[in-house]
Batch of 2 targets.
Target 1
Amino acid sequence: MSKRVEAKITCPNCNHQFEFTLYRSIWGEYPENRELVMSDKINVTKCPSCNRSTKLQFPFIYTNADQHFAVWWEPEYDAQIDSDSVGYAKMLGEGNYLATAPRIKSWSEFKNTILKFENGELKGKQGTMSKEMNDQMQGFLKHLQDKNKKKNSGCMGVALILFVFSSSLLYGISKLIF
Ligand SMILES: [Zn+2]
């Protein structure tokens, strides 16, 4: 699934406040998602009060799991991407396409980079889960199972995973600039 984040938007034109759901990541192997990016419609809000459209300067990652590449659009430096990349490298191995995804500031260059990956001018690597990560996962799963047996409730562990996962998505709402 593409990751999406709820945000409260203040219209730069009329100050009307409204809710909007931003993409933090988008799965480009789906044609409708690719189109959303290529037609400049991704993360564009329309104010329900004055109808003004605004393209939000919110960094997101474009991924294509079929062709093994990913590209960040990073209009402004985003420290969360540093730690995301470290996390991807740990999970999927150094050099994996998610860990080494280029971080592009310019919107048109961002789209060009996607095209270069698609036509083979640039290549991403699939990577493999590191042995260390694999061992950790196995250990963690076993730990959960043991806990389950004892307490008949693994909810805490699952809740913790979900919390860690979702907290990485919540970044940056405060950084939105209008
Ligand atoms: Zn407005």
Note: The mean pLDDT is 82.
Target 2
Amino acid sequence: MRIRVDDIPEEGLYVETDDTDTWAFQAASQAIEGPVHELKVVLTLTRIAELLRVSGTASARGGHVCDRCGGDLEISIGGKVELLYEPIGKPDSDEVHLTDPSDLDIGFFDGLALDLTDVIMEQFALWLPDKVVCGGRGVKQVGAAWSCAVAAQPEVPERENPFAKLRLPD
Ligand SMILES: [Zn+2]
């Protein structure tokens, strides 16, 4: 879902999407590493000189597997979106001085169009915890509760000696 910079009016461009949009569903599912059950994204794209600011809110709920026990979980993530995109390959501009750049996540775009698929993927990937485990923030177990423990390693069957049945000729 590419938005051309030229199509963004002075006052900003309002974009709303949810899981009924295939591109948004796929982007969010890929970012949270599981199928999204619910997705809501409300963004405003604004041009600041040659930069693009993306602000709004986003939230997703989707399936995930516990990184500790392998059980089926559902994770909910979301929050405020505040991203800034800079055209790639352009020398640093003196025109824009950010009050506190550390507050912002800066990404890059080709200067012509911003791909909202990338924006959604980046934002949800930023929010996704490094480890998704039972009892984690925004995480709940699916179905009857179980106690989360390190999954037993599947027993590796001892490989049969391929020569075991080999009979040497008498
Ligand atoms: Zn677990």
Note: The pocket of zinc ion is lined by residues 66, 68-69, 71, 133-134, 148 (CB under 6 Å).
